[in-house]
Amino acid sequence: MSQPQDPQRPFLPFGNPFQMILPKSSNLSPRLLSILNSFEATMSERLESLKPKDMEDILSLSWMISAAKSLSAIHTDVKALITSLELPVSDWDEKWIDIYLDNSVKLLDVCIAFSSEISRLNHGHLFLQCSLHNLDCATPVQFTKARSSLDGWKQHVSSKNPRLEKCSSTLDNLIDTLDLPKIKNSSKGKVLMRAMYGVRLVTGFICGVLAAAFSRSADKLSDFKPPETCLWADTFTNLQAVVHGQIRNVHSSGKVASLKECDLVHTSVMKLYPLSLNEDDPEAMRISITDLRQRADMLSQGLDLLAKEVDGFFQIILTGRDALLGNLRVGSDMFNSTQKSNHAEGPTVR
C-alpha cells in the first residue's frame, strides 16, 4: 500500500517485455504483421476516444461508462485476433493457458467488486427519494424525517466497501504479473502474447481509475510505461498522464477524488439541509428540492448505465474463460479417446 505522504506510485519496472515476445531478430510474415498492426491500431483508436474534452469529466460516470465500453471492445478485439491467428487451444503453451485463466479469475473478482459498489451507491438513492418525498409534504414532522434521510445518505456514501479494498489487492496482483513467459519457435504465439500484454496493461489502467473513483482515493493508481514498439504506446501514455494527473491534482488539493455526480448530489444536500431547519424561505427551498431531485436522478441513471457496462464486461470475460475450458475438455476427451482406441487395437505386428 502506498504511503500517505507519497501517493504517486512509480512507473513499473518491467523493462521491455517485448524483447522476449518479438526480438529484433524475429521476422513475422506479412499476414501476422497485418493482424498485429490492425489490432494495435484499433486499440490506439479506442484509447484516443477516452481522452476527455473537459478535465472535470474524468471522474464522471459518463467517462467511466465510456471506459468500460472501450474495455469490453478491446477484450472482444483480442478474441477476434485469436481467431484470426488460427492458433487452436491445443497448440497453446501451458503457461499461456495458466496466464489467461488466472487473469480471468482476477478480472471477474474486480467486476464483482465494482458491481457491489454500484449497488451500494444505488441503495443510497433510497435515502434521497425518502427525503424528497417527506420534503414535498411540507410539515414539521415530515421535515424532521427528511433531515434524518439526508443524514442517512451522507453516512451511507461516506462508508467504506470492504470489497473495494480486496479489489485493490487483486489489481495489484494482476499488475505484478504483467511479465510474460519466453516464447520459442512460435511466431503466432509471440503475436498472441504481445496482444495479451497490451490488453492486460490497458485493463489494469482502466480498472485502476475506476477503483480510484469508487474508493475516493488516488493512492492506488499505478503508472505504466509501455514499450515504444507498440502502435498504441504514445496514445496510452498521453491518456494516462491526463487522467492520473487530474485525479492526483484533485487529491493533492485536499479534495476527495470522488464521482462527479456524487459530489453534485452532496452539494445539493448540504445546501438543502439548513433550509429544512428554518423553513422561512419557501422559494429557496423549492429550488433546492428541484435541484436535488434532478441531480439524484442523474446519479441513479448513470449508475444504472455503468452497472450494465460492468456486467457486459463480466460476461465477455466469463464466456471467454468458459470457451477456453470447453476447448481444453474437448481436446482432452479426443486425446483419451485416441489412447483407448490404440490400446484396444493392440500392438502392431511387424
Automatic annotation (TrEMBL):
Protein name: Protein BPS1, chloroplastic-like
Source domain of life: Eukaryota
Matches recorded under PANTHER family: BPS1-LIKE PROTEIN
Keywords, in A-Z order: Membrane, Transmembrane, Transmembrane helix
Residues of the signal peptide: none
Record membrane topology: Single-pass membrane protein
Family (UniProt): Belongs to the ROH1 family.
UniProt source species: Lithospermum erythrorhizon
Cellular component per GO, a single term: membrane
Main location as per UniProt: membrane
Upper taxonomic lineage: Eukaryota, Viridiplantae, Streptophyta, Embryophyta, Tracheophyta
Compartments where located: Membrane
InterPro entries on file: ROH1-like
